[in-house]
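Case study 2.
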Amino acid sequence: MVIKVFVATSSGSIAIRKKQQEVVGFLEANKIDFKEFDIAGDEDNRKWMRENVPGEKKPQNGIPLPPQIFNEEQYCGDFDSFFSAKEENIIYSFLGLAPPPGSKVTKSPEEASSLPDGDVAGEAQSTTEGTEKAEESGEHEAQKESDEDAGDLARSQEKNTKGVTAEGAEGEAEGEEAEEGEEEPGEEEGEGDEEEES
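Prediction:
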């Protein structure tokens, strides 16, 4: 299977060129086999592309703009569809390709309804919910222990502050004296400024 990307190599639109480059660059970077078909220089390519884009996917004027993407004869989509599939990490599904082995590709919503081991998605959710509930109850116990520790800490701080109150008052008085000493040099500087201005 070969991915066909219909492009216009001599497009005057910068937006179209950027979109084409993004599609081609992505396919190259991910080593996905594809072939470019130029609709600007080949009337047959242009005609084939226009005829094979489904009616509901064509713009109002009826002329689809490049890039348009096909898997052999099967229409995949335009740039907007490609971009959405890339963002949702379902690009291989979008292109109609099997993901490469070992890739972490999410399945499309239709494929995701059952899990690989045959379990139903809803069953996996209830297991997850049970695990979350168990974790929450563990968190509640940890919170209770934390609250008890905080109570012990508050009691020990009360004991310490009773003995420190007298020392703290002396320290505050010393701090006020130091602040007064700092203001005096500032006043002298202000007087010195006045002398310089005269």
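The radius of gyration is 36 Å.
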